[in-house]
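Hi support team,

I submitted a single chain yesterday and got back a structure, but I'm not sure I'm reading the token output correctly. Could someone confirm the output below corresponds to the sequence I sent? I've pasted both exactly as they appear in my results page.

Thanks,
R.
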Amino acid sequence: MSNLPKIAWIGLGIMGSPMSENLIKAGYQVTGYTLEQDKLDRLAAAGGTAAGSIAEAVRDADVVITMVPASPQVEAIAHGPDGILENARSGALLIDMSSITPQTSVDLAKAAADKGIRVLDAPVSGGEAGAIEAVLSIMVGGEQADFDEAEPIFEALGRTIVLCGPHGSGQTVKAANQLIVAVNIQACAEAVVFLEKSGVDLKAALDVLNGGLAGSTVLTRKKDNFLNRDFKPGFRIDLHHKDMGIVTDAARTVGAALPVGAVVAQLVASLRAQGDGGLDHSALLRAVERLSGAQV
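Hi R., thanks for writing in. Yes, this is the structure output for that exact sequence:
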């Protein structure tokens, strides 16, 4: 029998499925729950156990990990008679890896403490590829002792793992991450349109740009999306729209000006309004093309 903690995983989407599978590969016993039967089947095929409810999944777990789209979903799975807090055992560690508002994380930690459940907020960056390759950046908020306990689990999921401060700090850092990523994608998209309209060999141009100061992880990860106009979602515009709302709202609360971020947030919102919300966030290129007169 393994001495590793038993893990319950709630939320098996684009990120959650490969992440849970990496824990299985690392030797963890993972029981999962999500709303889609095909995702439960995938977990079972990978060696995990499919549960019929949140309560069933978390009942015997030492660690509960959640990866769902936004604050309302975190609140829905955490609270209520069928939720995590009512059904997880006292002393369990709840790790929320969703990207939500910092305040939601703070409130969740307080509610969980009343049940004897410890909480870490641990959102990630790296997208679907990072989840599959287990090279995610994981930014964590919570207590040092809980972080130390969770670190071996994080090491099976990511490469850069940092405790950023008390509850909510991980979400604050993730909001900053999403600001940087969105602005970076927008700049890359504008460069792509500029280069193509100038008649330059786009692949050659992006290769040389990525080798200099203009290079970035964003350009490395999204270069083929731009070249091939392949916008299969690794991280959907819908979700980045949600995250830009989080960062602009949080910045307003603390009195931080985000002039460029606010513009990019509106460009993300406009792309979503045009029906592209289900596409990868590299589809910001489509918005630039439309503004430049292309029919897309």
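A quick pointer for reading it: Strands lie at 7-10, 30-33, 49-50, 63-66, 93-96, 118-121, 124-125, 136-141, 158-165. Let us know if anything else looks off.

Best,
Support desk
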